[in-house]
Specification:
This protein is an all-alpha fold. The protein has one domain. 73% of the residues lie in helices and 0% in strands. It is built from 15 helices and no strands.
């Protein structure tokens, strides 16, 4: 059911996925000489493109609030009895594709030293963000899935306890996560494995807060949002601080607010991209690893760019096929099986 689907955020999610898959990760593989004279925006993406994952977390939190709180006027919309259905819906959405890519990367890259049996079991049970080396085992970007699942669990349990509890948990989680990033764990540069969970909690629950303040957010003057966005992108936290606070608190909230005002992000093409953003995010990494030798050896930025365009075309084609023939059918099959289980249980209860 489409409960007030935010199509512009679908488009924004697609852009964020492409930013990680088609810019940040490939640019890391470029020979330093090949990127030395690139555009400033490419240099920024090579250095800070990893923070687009924080934009993912923010969008997820906002969309979850829209779906589960929007239908109840902003109050917690999960009953205790609905928690199994919530968990199964999340499982059907995330796990089939994650499992497929885990098996594929296990077959392709079994010889990698980091791909141990312990790491495989961590991925299998969606705990890959908590086993080192984070982001460098099997399908590396999937670390964010286990963080998302952790956020989902906190949200669901708190929402089932009532809106007051959810509000308190939301505020407390944002404060604690931000406090960790700023005071305890914050270091210059990044990404750092120790920041993974705080980043997810901060982004997801900050997205919830933004949704609750959506009317006030809509009333902010657009040029002001643009200025704050530029400020968030430009602030240099120095050598002793994490770069995340200005990006997570200023830049990405402004990007989300601006996206909601741009109808083009809700166009058919952008929604198509957004629907496949999860597939692109997971599928791109093993394909990129196959392209890695060519990118590393390339000394010319134009030849490196041509190789990257080929990689992009393959990722988009593979993502479209996997989304159509595996991801969506697998999700429907799981949801249908869960629905039949409910019907059978109801039939027994009324017999």
């Amino acid at each position: 059911m489409d409960r007030g689907r935010l199509r512009s955020l679908d488009g924004l999610r697609g852009i964020a996925a492409c930013g990680v898959a088609f810019f940040y990760h490939p640019l890391l593989e470029f020979n330093a000489h090949a990127i030395g004279h690139a555009l400033a925006v490419l240099l920024w993406l090579r250095t800070w493109g990893w923070t687009l994952v924080d934009l993912f977390f923010l969008i997820s939190g906002y969309v979850f609030a829209q779906v589960y709180l929007g239908r109840t006027g902003g109050r917690a919309g999960l009953e205790q009895s609905a928690l199994p259905d919530f968990a199964m819906a999340r499982f059907a959405r995330l796990y089939p594709l994650h499992l497929l890519l885990l098996l594929v990367t296990a077959a392709l890259f079994a010889s990698e030293p980091a791909n141990t049996a312990i790491a495989f079991m961590a991925h299998l049970f969606m705990m890959q963000a908590f086993v080192a080396p984070v982001g460098h085992t099997f399908d590396g970007p999937s670390w964010s899935l286990s963080v998302e699942v952790f956020c989902y669990a906190i949200f669901a349990v708190a929402a089932a306890r009532g809106d007051r509890v959810l509000r308190r948990i939301t505020v407390a989680t944002v404060v604690l996560a931000l406090g960790y990033i700023v005071v305890l764990g914050g270091r210059e540069g990044g990404p750092w494995a120790a920041d993974c969970l705080p980043r997810g909690l901060l982004g997801f629950f900050l997205g919830q807060m933004l949704w609750r303040c959506r009317e006030q957010l809509q009333s902010i003057w657009t040029p002001f949002l643009v200025v704050v966005l530029a400020l968030g992108l430009a602030i240099d936290m120095g050598a002793a601080w994490s770069p995340l606070p200005p990006l997570c608190l200023l830049a990405w909230p402004c990007v989300l607010a601006l996206a909601l005002r741009i109808p083009a992000l809700g166009s058919r093409a952008m929604v198509w991209l957004g629907d496949r953003s999860y597939t692109i995010y997971l599928v791109h990494y093993p394909i990129l690893l196959c392209f890695r030798p060519d990118l590393n050896e390339q000394q010319n930025v134009w030849l490196a760019s041509a190789g990257t365009l080929g990689y992009v075309a393959i990722v988009l084609a593979a993502s479209a096929a996997i989304y159509r023939f595996f991801e969506m059918p697998a999700g429907r099959m799981i949801r249908a099986a869960w629905g039949r289980r409910h019907l059978a249980a109801n039939a027994v209860a009324t017999a």
